Amino acid sequence: MKTPQITSLALALTLGLAVPLFAQETTETPAPEAPAVAGDAAGGDGLSMGAEIGAPAAAGDTYVAAAFDAWEQRCIKTDLGADPCQLYQLLKDDQGNSVAEFSVFSLPEGSQGPAVAGATFIAPLETLLTAGLMVQVDTNKARAYPFTFCAQIGCVARIGFTADEVAQFKKGASATLAIVPFVAPDQKVELKVSLKGFTAGLDAVAAANKLADAAAAAAAANPTPSPAEGEAPAEGEAPAEGN
After folding, report:
1. What mean pLDDT, rounded, does the chain reach?
2. Whole-prediction pTM value?
3. Which of 28, 154, 177, 220 lies at a 20 to 30 A Cα distance from 90?
4. Would you call 146 helix, strand, or coil by DSSP?
């Protein structure tokens, strides 16, 4: 199966950002060109001027806020002073190849149930969508979930977890996520998810998202005021015409 390009798509999906939809493909697509390093300015002669290593993340950048054993707390930088986050794990097959991405996030307080947490799973494009995704925690009963759509980097399943299911993850040792290859519908690819560090990680994500929700609500309630009448216009801004 084709290895997906590991990106911050899962976190973008968590925030509800728009993603272009594509039909499932069964042929290899050329790898995209490597993106430029953030902040890498080019001189007039086209030569790279480099970028400072360790520079603070800018608004819109994804960064790792903390690590919890097998999990990473990944967040998107905002200008609000509090950033939304998710719990992330890269899933590999038994040969050590990167196959899929699994991310879990808290839902806002007061959300209408039954889900109290959500997750995104990104599988390779050559996944048999009609077979769906199977999730099982330890020896608990497995559940099946449909795929939602496919983008250029893979096919996405958006999942909701009840309080009891979240409790299974917190108490469990590992989970198994299974998909079926499009080219081999009689086979099943099982991916192991370590649950070590899950409880502390999800608690940290929930705390971060609670602060981010409060900051977003405060910003919406108190929008940045427009320049006062008579105030000099900002640089490059045309002055208002008189009556």
Report:
1. 80
2. 0.72
3. 28
4. coil
